């Protein structure tokens, strides 16, 4: 699982997910990419699930780049706890994704294989995604 080595603050506000992503919206490393079409939080477990799918499709021939990193702490309170008592404990880390963000990149495989792999990885994501090719 991906987690930050250290953070400035242990807990964070939830924040807003307005607008489009300008940064990280162009394919840089690979030839094929998976682009987010809606906003949401992607947890480190979901990122790992997508990575496993993509590496299975590469079969030692291709290369996969993960363009997102979960640095937002998500807190949760235990079940059946009364109101108050402060904010809950950190249970996982997530990344805030907005429309336009490239999640994964891939190269060294055929276009059909990459499209199938990205479609399967997109199914693991909590946001709508789209397969794109570098022009």
TrEMBL record:
<dbReference type="GO" id="GO:0006412">
    <property type="term" value="P:translation"/>
</dbReference>
<dbReference type="Pfam" id="PF00252">
    <property type="entry name" value="Ribosomal_L16"/>
</dbReference>
<comment type="similarity">
    <text>Belongs to the universal ribosomal protein uL16 family.</text>
</comment>
<dbReference type="InterPro" id="IPR016180">
    <property type="entry name" value="Ribosomal_uL16_dom"/>
</dbReference>
<comment type="subunit">
    <text>Part of the 50S ribosomal subunit.</text>
</comment>
<keyword id="KW-0687">Ribonucleoprotein</keyword>
<dbReference type="GO" id="GO:0019843">
    <property type="term" value="F:rRNA binding"/>
</dbReference>
<dbReference type="InterPro" id="IPR000114">
    <property type="entry name" value="Ribosomal_uL16_bact-type"/>
</dbReference>
<dbReference type="GO" id="GO:0003735">
    <property type="term" value="F:structural constituent of ribosome"/>
</dbReference>
<keyword id="KW-0694">RNA-binding</keyword>
<dbReference type="InterPro" id="IPR047873">
    <property type="entry name" value="Ribosomal_uL16"/>
</dbReference>
<dbReference type="GO" id="GO:1990904">
    <property type="term" value="C:ribonucleoprotein complex"/>
</dbReference>
<dbReference type="InterPro" id="IPR036920">
    <property type="entry name" value="Ribosomal_uL16_sf"/>
</dbReference>
<keyword id="KW-0820">tRNA-binding</keyword>
<keyword id="KW-0699">rRNA-binding</keyword>
<comment type="function">
    <text>Binds 23S rRNA and is also seen to make contacts with the A and possibly P site tRNAs.</text>
</comment>
<protein>
    <recommendedName>
        <fullName>Large ribosomal subunit protein uL16</fullName>
    </recommendedName>
</protein>
<keyword id="KW-0689">Ribosomal protein</keyword>
<dbReference type="GO" id="GO:0005840">
    <property type="term" value="C:ribosome"/>
</dbReference>
<dbReference type="GO" id="GO:0000049">
    <property type="term" value="F:tRNA binding"/>
</dbReference>
């Amino acid at each position: 699982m991906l987690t930050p080595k250290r953070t400035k603050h242990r807990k964070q506000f939830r924040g807003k997910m307005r607008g489009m992503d300008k940064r990280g919206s162009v394919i840089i490393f690979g030839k094929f990419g998976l682009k987010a079409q809606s906003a949401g939080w992607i947890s480190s477990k979901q990122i790992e699930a997508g990575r496993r799918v993509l590496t299975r499709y590469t079969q030692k021939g291709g290369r996969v780049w993960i363009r997102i990193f979960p640095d937002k702490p998500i807190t949760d309170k235990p079940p059946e706890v009364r109101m108050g008592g402060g904010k809950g404990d950190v249970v996982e880390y997530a990344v805030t994704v907005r429309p336009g963000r490239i999640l994964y990149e891939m190269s060294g495989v055929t276009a059909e294989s990459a499209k199938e792999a990205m479609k399967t990885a997109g199914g693991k994501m909590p946001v709508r995604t789209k397969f794109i090719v570098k022009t």
